[in-house]
Design a protein that fits this description.
There is one protein chain. By secondary structure, the protein is an alpha+beta fold. The chain contains 19 helices and 28 strands. It has three domains: 143 residues, 3-Layer(aba) Sandwich (Creatine Amidinohydrolase, Chain A, domain 1), CATH 3.40.350; 141 residues, 3-Layer(aba) Sandwich (Creatine Amidinohydrolase, Chain A, domain 1); 288 residues, Creatinase/methionine aminopeptidase superfamily (Creatine Amidinohydrolase, Alpha-Beta Complex), CATH 3.90.230. The radius of gyration is 24 Å and the shape is globular. The two termini are 37 Å apart.
């Protein structure tokens, strides 16, 4: 099993660890310290060594941070984690709704005049600290870059990851890494930049056609790089990672160095140097500024090329989704036979991973499977443990959000399933969520619009009933890379125009704390829409093509709420599921599939 069910943190240790940290801060002459859930590479997921937030507080969500002062310690979380944080942290920590409550305002309210608040310059981005510094102007609160204070008290902190790197074949990557280097280097020359700093692990993986296992669930490796305008690259990575890599994979354009040389090499550059201030750590800016190297702030040069998948990547992930869809159908057939037989959330997770493993091509799961039944379904990113494991009960809804990592693609799918008969209120909410997903699936829009312009469409059916959900409508997804990939998003915060080749999730939901949760999710691919007879000849239109083909549970649909067009979409979707997946499953599963995809 990739997924384990032991509690990922020890919240009962929180009071003692917080006291030890406060003693360390007093010794260092600090009045506070910021503890983010971040590493030096600013990925969403972190290695065990970098789980400082979970180690200190007990909170294991994938986003959030803690601000520790002498008499209060706030744990800041967004809408996805407000139920989870209450269950995970000891009462010495105070949950804070974020971003409604900003860190600057909180510090101004709770820190004494003249307070010195420390932060680790490797764990905070340039933009983050710039914004916080600006917001604290006139507040008599100083931000102080210091060595990490949690590391000073974490006696059994794990070692940095040193997992081996493997090559991603060009047949799957679609482009040799030398061509990527040349393409991006031309962009640097055109912009007048001498070099670009690359700190994101998935950018390195994409650019160099490599994959790794430094981060659970994400096939990336830790390292830093400097891409030069002459199409050469300095790579800073533990050399032990290359011991199993083909000797000639990188070629002469790539120079390998140990990580300790990263900062000194930065200091030897001549500017201007492109730095993504939204992802690069403050330590990078400090090194460049300390050597008087000109910085030009701009986007990671890998971000958009990585997001816009090429034909080989699209073909690979299309196949991966069909393979994964067949595994999901095998699981769903099992679920229908066993849902009311006393199975537990752990049973569900185990069986689903088993079905994916039986494909013979599963490299990892793409995140820890979310299998929340009854009230656990309202915890948006619930992770079952032996302590929380709940038996499925008749009348429950099960939110099942999962995915697989395959060499040719990354999947992410959510289905909400009934355990026996469920109430009319649950069915009505489910149908509204489904209507939102359908609306987005059918969408056509003019080129140039961003996620913030489109995401409301997936909420309208819920809004009409006075309901909503506290997460974005969709995130970007990589191809055998991170299941959460930027810069593309279906979010009111995203101003990045959607482009052909981008993959996103389409996942509206509804959650009633203490009662039930609902979410549906398909992955979709942005592509150019065909012209329509009455359309403007000069206007380029885009649309989504669905990648995920797995039946939606018809027993939860209140058909009286559907329009005829929505009925037609569901029937067409299910007919395609049946056509694509029936040849890929065993005979008994094909019989289940035929029933599950029958017309409404």
């Amino acid at each position: 099993m990739f997924q384990q069910f032991n509690a990922a943190s020890q919240p009962e240790q929180g009071p003692a660890r917080l006291a030890a940290l406060r003693a360390e801060l007093a010794h260092a002459g600090l009045d506070g310290f910021l503890v983010p859930r971040a590493d030096a590479h600013q990925g969403e997921y972190v290695a065990p060594r970098d789980e400082r937030l979970a180690w200190l507080t007990g909170f294991t969500g994938s986003a959030g941070f803690c601000a520790v002062l002498a008499d209060v310690a706030g744990v800041f979380v967004d809408g996805r984690y407000r139920e989870q944080v209450k269950l995970q942290v000891a009462d010495v920590f105070t949950p804070v709704d974020w971003p409604e409550n900003t860190l600057a305002a909180w510090l101004a309210d709770h820190a004494a005049a003249g307070a010195r608040v420390g932060f680790d310059p490797w764990l905070h981005t340039i933009d983050e600290i710039d914004r916080l510094t600006h917001a604290l102007q006139g507040k008599d609160i100083a931000l102080v870059p210091v060595a990490n204070q949690v590391d000073r008290i974490w006696e059994d902190q794990p070692d940095p990851p040193r997992a081996p790197v493997t090559a991603q074949p060009v047949a799957l990557a679609g482009e040799p890494h030398a061509d990527k280097l040349a393409r991006l280097a031309k962009g640097l020359r055109d912009a007048g930049d001498s070099a670009a700093v690359i700190t994101l692990p998935d950018s390195l993986a994409w650019l160099l056609n490599i994959r790794g296992t430094d981060i659970p669930r994400n096939p990336v490796t830790h390292g830093f790089a400097i891409l030069h305008a002459d199409a050469t690259l300095d790579l800073f990575m533990d050399p032990v990672k290359f011991e199993t890599l083909e000797e000639d994979h990188f070629g002469p354009a790539i120079r390998e160095h140990v990580p300790d040389l990263f900062l000194t090499t930065l200091q030897g550059l001549s500017g201007p140097v492109l730095v993504d201030a939204g992802s690069a750590p403050v330590a990078v800016a400090e090194a460049l500024q300390g050597a008087s190297v000109d910085i030009r702030k701009g986007a990671d040069p890998c971000a958009l090329p990585k997001a816009c998948k090429n034909a080989a990547e699209i073909a690979g992930t299309t196949e991966a989704h069909l393979r994964d869809g067949a595994a999901m159908c095998t699981f769903l057939a099992w679920f229908d036979q066993n849902a009311e037989s006393g199975i537990t959330e752990i049973d569900v997770v185990t069986q689903l991973e088993t079905c994916r493993r039986e494909t013979g091509q599963l490299q990892d799961i793409s995140f820890d499977t979310i299998a929340g039944t009854g009230p656990h379904g309202a915890v948006i990113h619930y992770r079952v443990t032996h302590d929380t494991n709940r038996t499925l009960a008749t009348g429950d809804l099960l939110v099942l959000d999962s995915g697989g990592q395959y060499r040719d693609g990354t999947t992410d799918i959510t289905r909400t399933l009934p355990v026996g008969a469920v109430g009319t209120e649950e069915k009505a909410a489910f149908t509204r969520v489904l209507q939102g997903m359908i609306a987005v699936s059918q969408l056509r829009w003019p080129q140039g619009l961003a996620g913030q312009h489109l995401e409301a469409i997936g909420r309208v059916p819920l809004w009409s009933a006075g309901q909503d959900f506290d997460h974005g409508l969709g995130h970007g997804v990589g191809v055998y890379l991170c299941v959460h990939e930027g810069p593309q998003r279906l979010s009111r915060l995203s101003d990045v125009p959607l482009r052909p080749g981008m993959i996103l999730s389409n996942e509206p939901g509804y959650y009633r704390p203490g009662a039930f949760g609902i979410r549906l999710e398909n992955l979709v691919l942005v592509e150019e829409a065909p012209a329509l007879p009455a359309g403007d000849a000069h206007r380029v239109m885009l649309q989504f093509r669905t990648l995920t083909w797995v039946p939606i549970d018809r027993r939860l649909i209140d058909t009286a709420l559907l329009t005829q067009a929505e009925r037609d979409w569901i029937d067409a979707y299910h007919a395609t599921c049946r056509h694509l997946l029936a040849p890929r499953v065993e005979k008994d599963v094909a019989i289940w599939l035929d029933r599950a995809t029958a017309p409404l």
